[in-house]
Amino acid sequence: MNFTFAVGDIHGCLEPLREMLDRIRAYARAGTVVFIGDYIDRGPDSKGVIDLLMNGSGSQSWRWICLKGNHEDMMLRAHANDGERIWWLENGGLETELSYGGKVAVNHLLWASQLPLMHIDNNRIFVHAGVVPDLPLEMQSPQDLVWLRVPDDYSTDYWGKHLCHGHTPSMANPMTVGNRTNIDSGCVFGGPLSCAVFDDSRPGGPIEFIQVQG
Fold first, then answer.
1. Helix 46-55 / helix 106-113 crossing angle, nearest 10 deg
2. Cβ contacts of residue 42 below 8 Å, gap of 6+?
3. Domain architecture of the chain: domains with CATH
4. CA–CA distance, 205 with 104 (Å, rounded to integer)
5. Cβ distance 4 to 28 under 8 Å?
6. Which of 14, 90, 160, 169 could be 186's S-S partner, Cβ–Cβ 3.0 to 4.6 Å?
7. Beta carbons of 159 and 144 less than 8 angstroms apart
8. DSSP H helices in the chain
9. Alpha-carbon radius of gyration of the chain
């Protein structure tokens, strides 16, 4: 049996992330881990989170896929345009800069700029924020994929696949509504860090969740 593990918004919470990875490795000997984005901002150790993710799984048995979130998008915009810097700092960027000792490392900015916006397998679509069902998958805009807000009670057919995303935090998450699962349970706001476990051979939603208190 093969598994995919989707990890929700981390926001600089390094220790819950370390514990979550330990829990995932205890669950299975191999698999795919999809990190849903928002690795930085607000939490205490954005630099440590990026260091860990950039170093990779360290094992050929595990494939790690890191998607871009809106906070990575904000950071990149702030470094490309001084006019957007205050907006980023007010939304958690200050804590990120402090974790770097004042300036985000250039190689970390490059890594963030190259992150994919979507991961699709046989049964699932993984994005940070959401998708617009009225448009084909190949026509989704980067803005929507990292910034869209999906109503709590909304679901549709999603091209015959199950949609997994984060971005919109709630202490009620992780929650599955129809063909959609939101795994942002507000770790940086005092909620747990959540992970959805998917059986790769089975269509549909998660078979269970793993949670680590933030």
1. 60
2. 11, 12, 91, 92, 95, 188
3. 11-213 (3.60.21.10)
4. 37
5. no
6. 169
7. no
8. 14-27, 46-55, 70-80, 85-88, 94-99, 106-113, 142-147
9. 16
Contact (Cβ atoms closer than 8 angstroms) between residue 117 and residue 129: no
User: pLDDT, tens digit, for every residue of 99-124?
Assistant: 999 999 999 999 999 999 999 999 99
Give CA–CA dist 197/73, Å, rounded.
27
Pairing of strands 62-66, 31-35: parallel
DSSP notation for 24-52: HHHH-SSEEEEE-S--SSSSS-HHHHHHH
d(CA 173, CA 186) in angstroms, rounded, equals: 8
User: Tell me: the pLDDT tens digits for 146-177?
Assistant: 999 999 999 999 999 999 999 999 999 999 99
- d(Cα 105, Cα 137) in Å, to the nearest integer? 33
